[in-house]
Amino acid sequence: MEDATSTNPQSLGFTDKLKSWLSWSWTYICAVWFAMVLTMIYVLRSPLKLQDTLTSASVFLNTLTPKFYVALTGTSSLISGLILIFEWWYFRKYGTSFIEQVSVSHLRPLLGGVESSSTTGLFSSVNGEAEPRPSVSECKVWRNPLNLFRGAEYSRYTWVTGKEPLTYYDMNLSAQDHQTFFTGDTQQIKAEDTVMQKAWRERNPQARIRAAYQAIEMNHECAAAYVLLAEEEATTITEAERLFKQALISQGCNSGKDINLLVYIKRRLAMCARKLGRIKEAVKMMRDLMKEFPLLGMLNIHENLLEALLELQAYADVQAVLAKYDDISLPKSATICYTSALLKARAVSEKFSPEAASRRGLSTAEMNAVEAIHRAVEFNPHVPKYLLEMKSLILPPEHILKRGDSEAVAYAFFHLQHWKRAEGALNLLHCTWEGTFRIIPYPLEKGHLFYPYPGCTETADRELLPTFHEVSVYPKKELPFFILFTAGLCSFTAMLAMLTHQFPELMGVFVKAVSPALLFH
């Protein structure tokens, strides 16, 4: 066994060397082969009667009418135009060139190339240490801590606009969350629990509601069934709150309390209080929940608390929460970064003037505010366009991708009002946010304050956000070479067709003069 393991690296090394040598020599072999073909053609030019063949070809081209050239160039323009349209559509939909993708996928392995899109490479972190580059599978989707109520909010939007604000992918993730989250602590699964597990998997909302009523008939103290009715059947926040209170009572009556279900119910009750204007009550409920269950920080209840405190304009309390959660060892979010920027911007924005700042320079407080904005924009570059109302907002999804467009939509939907309330904060953001991109290295090999922006956000955001929303993409992708090439080819052949149609005699003289020179040289 030891001999086998010791010789294996040698054999692998020889194979790698052979492959690398073949890849290196492939270009030179092709060049030598091409030179040999040219030499053979030159030597055999007399037996093959190449001179006579070229002469007859020239005579044939001279006999062609201008209509032939109009048809030829027109057809070429049409074909290249169709290719251009398809390439443009494919690029807008998938973010890459179809021809380039096929070339990379099928031709590069034949030519001995190496895939350049490997996700196992390394990049340098802020500290200069090598870190694994995040792959598509590592773009983790998180539950939106401020997600809306389906019956009281999402469904009302559908009734008014006729558009579905949630994607099937997003709702399927929620179903998986509910199945996992609401599984009881006890190993004994009751009949109503089985019904509820099937209910969360149902795609039809009415089927889910019927299953919830069926579970309540089996057990009037089935808390999960009341949760489903509060989320999906209640058409107002008041009705949803009543059902959540009933779920809380039912949960208290059960002998084996499910901690996850209990936390979920209390959190949604706090959110109901926030939406109904009882903000101080909501803040107290959130604080009590965080104090009672400190280990459930992954639920991001502090983001609900930050939003409620901002509504109360309790900025000192907001700063205290940020001091605890804006820590280098904890995962960041747009809420954390942009709330920190808002507090620092609020301190200087009222008297901030771009003209005055350019004359005298930035003060220490203004510099801190600008750096906080740059930090927030680097973490999520999609947010400013929503805060500055350069892009229209939609209802936030039930799940978000950190640093993605879905997170930006969710943050701006709830926090735009807080930025507007701080006088001058949006003006400061407008004047400074684009300066972030001059700090970040391009093409983003390294991050400045955070790791490099992941390249998988666009794909995940397209799954989370509805089709009628134009997904924000960062960094902006340059047009592929083949789109530019086909655009140039289409324009050039269309111009030739038009000139040949308008000036047939002149173009005929031009072709007769050029074609012999091209053929004989």
Automatic annotation (TrEMBL):
GO cellular component: membrane
Topology in the lipid bilayer: Multi-pass membrane protein
Broad class of the protein's primary localization: membrane
Keyword terms of this UniProt record: Membrane, Transmembrane, Transmembrane helix
Name of the protein in its database record: Suppression of tumorigenicity 7 like
InterPro entries referenced in this protein's UniProt entry, alphabetically: ST7, TPR-like_helical_dom_sf
Family of the protein in this entry: Belongs to the ST7 family.
Pfam families according to UniProt: ST7 (PF04184)
Annotated transmembrane regions: 21-44, 68-91, 479-499
Location in or out of the cell: Membrane
The organism of origin for this protein: Oncorhynchus mykiss (Rainbow trout)
